[in-house]
Amino acid sequence: YSGNGSFLVGRKPQQASRCAALVAGSGVTPAIALLRDLQSEARSAPKSTPPVRELAVLHVTRTKEEALPAQWYETEDTKEPSIVCRVRNVATSETPDSKEQISLVLKEHFPSPSDDVVVIVCGPKGFVDDL
């Protein structure tokens, strides 16, 4: 993310107003960093609509206990947040068909494909390769 709604996708810059992050394990760290950048950007321009208004996160973990608590995703500002952040977790060891569950959550939780949507994928090599 280079700021002002601009993402580098491959070698091309792309403007987005909505973003989704499919993350596993420590791959949640870049998603949290992105969220913090988006929140900071929104706070610095409070009278205008922030360039990126929405972030949907699907955090895939082995167990529910490995998922980050909700407050990690909440805005530091006590006023109404400018960035809508929706978070879901799928615990693979506790879900009989985790790939099917992940697919279902993606369809329900992530923004529909569009020119103004960017999806980031972060996680261990095995997780990314399985996609």
Word description of this protein:
The model has no long low-confidence stretch (mean pLDDT 89). The strands form two sheets. Strands 5-4-3-6 form a four-stranded parallel sheet, with helices on both faces. A two-stranded antiparallel sheet has the order 1-2. The chain is built from three helices and six strands, in the order βββαββαβα. The radius of gyration is 15 Å and the shape is globular. With 131 residues, it is α/β, with parallel strands linked by helices. β1 (6-9) and β2 form a beta hairpin.
Rg, Å, rounded: 15 Å
The global form is globular
What's the rounded overall pLDDT mean?
Answer: 89
Largest sheet: number of strands, sense, barrel closure: 4 strands, parallel
Percent range of helical residues: 25-40%
Low-confidence stretches: none
Strands side by side in the biggest sheet:
5-4-3-6
Question: Quick one: how many beta strands?
Answer: 6
Name the beta content range.
25-35%
Structural class: alpha/beta
How would you spell out the order of helices and strands? EEEHEEHEH
What topology emerges from the helices and strands here?
Layout: E1 6-9, E2 12-15, E3 18-24, H1 28-44, E4 54-61, E5 84-91, H2 98-109, E6 117-122, H3 125-130
Parallel strand pairs: 3-4, 3-6, 4-5
Antiparallel strand pairs: 1-2
In summary, what is this structure?
With 131 residues, the chain is α/β, with parallel strands linked by helices.
